[in-house]
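Dear Dr. V.,

Thank you for agreeing to look over these. As mentioned in my earlier message, I'm a first-year student in the group and I'm still getting used to reading structure tokens, so any feedback on how I've presented them would be very welcome. I ran two proteins. I've put each sequence directly above its structure. The first is here:
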Amino acid sequence: MRTIETTALVRYTDEKGLADALRGADALFLYDFLSTALRRAWPAADRLRWVHIASAGVDPVMFPELRESDVVLTNSRGVFDDSIAEYILGVIIAFAKDLPRSLELQRRHRWQHRETERVAGRRALVVGTGPIGRAVARMLRAVGMAVSGAGRRAADGDPDFGEVHASAELAAHLPGYDYVIAVAPLTEQTKGMFDAAAFAAMAPGARFVNVGRGELVVTADLMAGLRAGRPAAAALDVFETEPLPSDSPLWTMPNVLISPHMSGDFAGWRDTLVEVFAENFRRWHSGEPLLNVVDKQLGYVPSGQ
């Protein structure tokens, strides 16, 4: 940010001061990527031309006034791809090798031999075919898993997924997979896509992983499904309400792994987010095309950018 301060007047603010800071501002770096304060402060944006958000997901700013405006929206796509893929591989190995049970038995000083599963040869469906989903597919293929994708359009011969199913037909394909991994962006089409029907369609023994957005899942349906054994287990990094309330039944379900929205957060990620914005600011100031321009009607950066 120091480099930017040599060429622009930079105002730092929190949610309370956002409206005042927006008056006369040409660009906004929304570093608090979970904040919804921009909508409330929007009437003060009298000359705003560009908003950059420090995340891949843009749902906190997808309110009608921004969608319908001429303001350009960019995101931080690419920062978390490999880190999230590593997290997903980690929880898959934890499930396959029964690591949560081993930790429980260790705390109880119990020696209980068990057999575990192989990861190689298992089938995974990655729901969301953007850069994060592709990084996940490459990571899982590297350990011998068979990976397919689910996205807006069906396709064959995809370089990362091989076969891509249409998300609209998700339930029809779920029975064929051992792991179902949600990395899709939150849009009107994806909200609540994992509901009772989706969980009932999963294969016996299938595990569910969500690192996309909590609102992709109908939480009550997930909990009912976990109690019924479909899915057999879940690793959840995102939730409809964050922080996850202390009285949520998910905390104590024996077949659930919980992490606090940290699947992509590697050491140094905050600095990397600033670097992404700084490069886009350089481009914006120089009149060059911006990176990661979001299609505000789709709610994400289209493939090919």
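The second protein is here, in the same arrangement:
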Amino acid sequence: MRRVPSPLRPDFDRICADLGFAFAYADDEPYWDETVRYEFTMEEVECDLEAPTAELHAMCLELASRAVQDGRMLRQLGVPEMAWDAVAASWRAREPSLYGRFDLCFGGDGPAKLLEFNGDTPTSLYEAAVFQWHWLEAGRTQGWLPRDADQFTSIHEALIARWREVWPDRRLHFAAMDNVEDRGTVYYLADTAVQADRVVDVLRIDEIGLRGDRFVDLTDAPIDVLFKLYPWEWLLRDPFGHSAGMATVRMVEPAWKMMLSSKGVLPLLWRLAPGHPNLLPAFFEGEADSEALGHSWVRKPVHSREGANITIVERGAASSRTGGPYTGPAVLQAFHPLPVFDGMRPVVGSWIVGDRPCGMGIREDATAITGNRSRFVPHAIT
């Protein structure tokens, strides 16, 4: 694994416009950064990233199968008791999952370490699935990448196949908050469903209505299957999440993914497989066993997103801290510094669609905590 300078395409802004990449910049700062790239060997991708992702996913499913029968584990995962029956019914029915993203610490000099699993509403999908593949093809054509360069990304094809495989309903609804990144992600996912011969409707979360016991769209058409880019823990705090419509709609992601959309999976996975080479020691805050972490750890709220409310403690003192709105129970995870390349710290987002690893995207930052302003950098296999 190495970080290599890369040319910025002179028609970059036009390419973004043509491909609908409306959030390539954030507040006039580049979010997508193609002035550098990360290069990997095929062995690093297949053995050090793809294979561990498959194993970690299997471990998460095993964890879910145990947690769904254990009230204490459900509480530790932050699943409210009012949702336990729905989670159990969803798990027993094996309601299908679409996707997830494992965030991994990897620098090419040791096993990848799981930082967290984004099992409910992971973003940076379009960038990983489409835009970086377009960048790769341009590089191979224009000569700044070898002609035989490859990339670990079959996300796009996997999403189309997944819609065809497990959602026979021809009409699907998609909803998100009204911001440019969420809209872009939802429109991209809706497009993959269209390519799977589905009829789609896209709307804002606050445009969903209720008629009797059915959610409806703006035309009063019933919503039978809803992809929601809206976290389960938010949904369950809303009147929306307590309404009769919840009993008649199929959600993507399904209710059982509540168990895996929490950083509570980190200590529970460590309890399930202590010493696993791809896990870091982790404990719930306040547990006596957490003393094993010594004087260095990372504190993460059980529910938090985009690097918010994270504290890194080194040798007993906070070295990095982010603000944000998240409070409540937290986990403590062993501090494992991100690798540093030219002063930047990358995190590998390893994607799974259904049950199969199928691609990755890289976010990097000069700071020790990856946040919502960290840049996306493309990769190539050379």
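From my reading of the second output: Residues 281-334 form one domain. DSSP finds nine helices and 21 strands in the chain. Does that match how you would interpret it?

Kind regards,
E.
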